[in-house]
Amino acid sequence: MRAWLRERGIATALTDLQRGSRRVAAADLAIALGGDGTFLRAARALRGAAVPLVGVRLGTFGYLAELEPGDWEDGLTRLVEGHGTVEKWLRLQVRVRAGGRTRELGPALNEVVVTAARVARLVEFTLRIDGEDVTRFRGDGMIVSTPVGSTAHSLAAGGPIVDRTDRCLLLTPVNSQSMTYRPLVLRSSRRIELVVGAARHGTALTVDGQETIELAAGSVIEVLESELDLHAATVVLRSRFRTIRERLKWGDPLVPHR
């Protein structure tokens, strides 16, 4: 790919995602080669840089990738010739307040997940929305998701599919003790807080599946719409609904037609 780009007069650089955020920020286009995890790490490396990001699906799933490994040349040709567009994907601003200190995490492109620190244990917390105590939750956890993340962990937990260019926040409970909990879709300007209660086996917070921290009782997780949207390059090679059909198998019959 580098040789192909150099032949067209385009300078390239390979960048380590853990240490290369400064180099990435100076680029005109960032290309992530891999699956969804690689795409998410690339998005975190970009931080607040308004650099368009495009993925080439070299992983096992690659829902977020725009280009296929067998025809990436056509997609990149259209991008470098100016025929693509740039979508703005909402991201989450995440911070944890505990013991008088505030820790910033993110921006998160997919989701924030609160669970027990040990598998198959319960977690307890109070859910606040815009400062109002909404409910006290007890169960396996809670997912706060972006529209992009609606097709990830949230979907597996029973949440809705939302078009990734929409502006909203999703709250998806995971295995609550009460049958009355259902997913919520909120406008993006809402402020969501999860106040961690006492848990026998601890509470953990995971951001985009990339970073996990343990939380003490009384910690407050605050989730807001980030001011730093991700700029995603697209050449519209497939419709959004085609992607949902082909990669998520949405609407496929449980038993193949004969």
Q: What report would you give on this structure?
A:
There is one protein chain. The protein is 17% helix and 37% strand. It has 258 residues and is α+β, with helices and mostly antiparallel strands. It folds into 2 domains: 2-90 and 229-248, 3-Layer(aba) Sandwich (Rossmann fold), CATH 3.40.50; 92-225, Tumour Suppressor Smad4. The longest helix has 11 residues, at 36-46. The protein is globular. The chain starts with a helix and ends in a 10-residue tail after the last helix. The model has no long low-confidence stretch (mean pLDDT 89).
How much of the polypeptide forms β-strand, as a percent range? 35-45%
In CATH terms, what is the fold-level topology of the largest domain? Tumour Suppressor Smad4
Order of helices and strands: HHEHEHEEEEEEHEEEEEEEH
Tell me the distance between the termini. Answer: 42 Å
Shape: globular
If classified by CATH, what would the architecture of the largest domain be?
A: Sandwich
Secondary structure tally: strands: 15
What is the helix tally? Answer: 6
Helix content: 10-25%
Structural class: alpha+beta
What Rg is obtained from the alpha carbons, in whole angstroms?
A: 20 Å
| Main sheet properties | 11 strands, antiparallel
The CATH top-level class label of the largest domain: Mainly Beta
Number of domains: 2
Unreliable residue stretches: none
For the residues shown, what is the average pLDDT? Answer: 89
- CATH-defined superfamily of the largest domain: Probable inorganic polyphosphate/atp-NAD kinase, domain 2
